[in-house]
Design brief:
Layout lengths: L1 H7 L2 H37 L5 H8 L16 E3 L2 E3 L5 H98 L1
Antiparallel strand pairs: 1-2
Helix pairs in contact: 1-2
């Protein structure tokens, strides 16, 4: 885990990974120590014999603290300077399972971050489209308002022309009536 953060070149991620490793692996290390002590007490009290140093080195190795597996790609799991090729004990198997689950959860976190980043990117593009659409709508509203004003002006001019024509027609009718009246008075 720290190797991945160091490869990225971010010292903050590296320190954070070390803290997480200590936090997550520390309790397992304490469990190993307590089982060492419990195994000694049990072997002393129940069977009356002390556990042999070879049994302890087989079960727990000679290491004082946990060292994470190397990223070398070997099939062996290396702890410190010692390479274990013997079958793993239950505790070591649990540690390996915990590390596997931790890597798996880190991969899921990275995948979630990637999905989140792509979602943000898509939402950004949609936001740009909405802003463009809003601009188009605003332009359409302005064009509609301008067309409404033009139509209103045209209707006003048409009304003025109609009134003018009605006035001209009325004047012509009056003039025709006056001419007819004048002609009728002349004949009578």
């Amino acid at each position: 885990m720290t190797g991945l953060a160091e490869i990225e070149g971010d010292p903050f991620k590296s320190e954070d990974a070390k803290r997480k490793l200590e936090r997550d692996i520390g309790p397992l290390e304490e469990e190993i120590r307590s089982r060492k002590v419990g195994a000694r007490k049990k072997s002393n009290s129940v069977w009356g014999a002390t556990s042999s140093p070879s049994d302890q080195s087989y079960l727990f190795g000679i290491r004082n603290s946990y060292a994470p597996p190397s990223m070398g790609g070997d099939d062996d799991v290396e702890y410190g300077d010692m390479s274990l090729t013997a079958p793993l004990t239950e505790v070591e198997r649990r540690i390996r399972d915990s590390e596997h689950l931790l890597r798996e959860s880190q991969a899921l976190c990275a995948e979630s971050e990637q999905i989140g980043a792509s979602t943000i990117e898509v939402m950004g593009r949609q936001r740009e489209q909405l802003e463009k659409s809003s601009g188009f709508i605003q332009q359409s509203l302005e064009n509609t308002e301008q067309a409404r004003l033009i139509l209103k002006e045209m209707a006003y001019r048409a009304l003025k022309n109609k009134i003018f024509l009605y006035c001209v027609i009325a004047l012509l009718l009056i003039a025709n009536g006056a001419v007819l009246l004048h002609l009728w008075r002349r004949k009578h």
